[in-house]
Amino acid sequence: MFPLALDPIVFRIGSLPVHWYGLILGLGALVGLFLVIREGSRFGIPQEFFMDMLLLGVPSAIIGARIYYVAFKWNDYKDNFVDVFKIWNGGIAIYGALIGAIICGIIYFRYKGYPFWRIIDICAPGLLAGQMIGRWGNFVNQEAYGGVVEESFLRSKLHLPDFIVNQMYIGDAFHHPTFLYESLWSLLGIAILMILRRQKFVRAGEIFLSYFIWYSIGRFFIEALRTDSLGYNGSSGLASFINGLWSPMKWLGFEPGFLDPNYGNIRISQLLSLLIIVAAVVLIIIRRTTGQPKAHYSDPIVSTKTGNTDAVVPDSAEHTPQQAPKGSQAGLKPPAEEDKKEQ
Question: Where do transmembrane segments lie in this chain (predicted)?
Fold first, then answer.
């Protein structure tokens, strides 16, 4: 007897079904919010600021994610336009979600008077936490999985529990649990970002850019295992280059998943991952070289709309906020202290 899949519907309220997918995405958003509020409190930023950010950011992320996905799958939706709105069936793209959330953040932070790079740095681990948990929604929906594997690979090599192995039996074969690979990669990334942001050399914006670099590295290698990648027709040279970069995975015993030739020969998420990695590294170098990010991650964060009344100097050792020194302007450290730092 073949294993049974999990029911994607948790329960019904009358005729309205409540899906695991939506509940899991909601849980991911709440966990991410908790991490952001906890870190934001070290800088004296009120939790209401982040709660409002979530209320605006989540819809923006969902809209961006859906538009991104539908745009590359338009042939599947142009004759069934109503299906565009059925996000509970899956079909949202994380990169699209990030685009939507960033656009919302730029507008919202500016409206509140907070510097974009400083706030987005605080949000980076929370974003990864949301992605880490959200991938389990793909698990329940049996989507975003990889190519065919032997059952023994899942049980004996990966030592996965029965509930994951059984859910990875899709169609007539077992598949790579790519949702799990990405979830674990995100978990490791959260730990790295939390350690990195306590280092004194880190400048404003570098935690967020590090988040992009870390996530994109993992996404590049995991994406090629999947069988549902968005693709396009690119040059054979570019396709060979990408496949060559991915080839170390073959040495580890992995094989790329099926890519529908009707959609192209290059996986869009792989190409975008490479571009993001290069862009983020170059941006860090340019900003460091020009001295543009004058503020460090540990410096006070102040809203231009509220002045320096809420500004605090976070104590990285004690993890407790301290009031900004008197005489500082806009929550910045006194000139003497800044001079010491520059020396």
Answer: 20-37, 49-72, 92-109, 208-225, 268-286
Q: Are residues 264 and 287 part of one domain?
A: yes
Q: Is residue 342 part of a domain?
A: no
Q: Looking at the structure, do residues 126 and 207 belong to the same domain, yes or no?
A: yes
CA distance 208 to 30: 19
Length of the chain: 343
For residues 130 and 29, the answer to whether their CB atoms sit within 8 Å is yes
**78 and 34 co-located in one domain:** yes
Q: How far apart are CA 21 and CA 9, in angstroms?
A: 8
Whether residues 203 and 92 fall in one domain? yes
pLDDT, tens only, 285-296: 999 999 888 899
Looking at the structure, tell me whether residues 240 and 314 fall in a common domain: no
Instruction: Please count the structural domains in the chain.
Output: 2
Check residues 94 and 177 and name the one with the higher pLDDT: 177
Pairwise CA distance, residues 163 & 159, whole Å: 12
Range of the domain at 147: 9-298
Distance CA 143, CA 229 (A): 11
Quote the pLDDT of residue 305.
78
- Ramachandran assignment for 254, one of left (phi > 0), alpha (psi -120 to 50 degrees), beta (any other): beta
Measured distance CA(28)–CA(30) in Å, rounded: 5
* Residue 153 DSSP one-character state: I
Residue with tokens 């960033």: 102
| Residue 155 assigned ligand-binding role | no
Residue 257 has pLDDT above 80, yes or no: yes
Residues 214, 125, single domain; the answer is: yes
- Beta-sheet strand order (sheet of 173-175): 148-149, 173-175, 169-170
Q: Which stretch of 18-32, 63-77, 127-141, 317-331 has the lowest confidence by average pLDDT?
A: 317-331
The pLDDT tens digits for 124-173 are 999 999 999 999 998 998 888 999 999 999 999 999 999 999 999 998 99
Q: Domain check: are 246 and 123 in the same one?
A: yes
Same-domain status, 117 and 30: yes
* Per-residue pLDDT, 335: 41
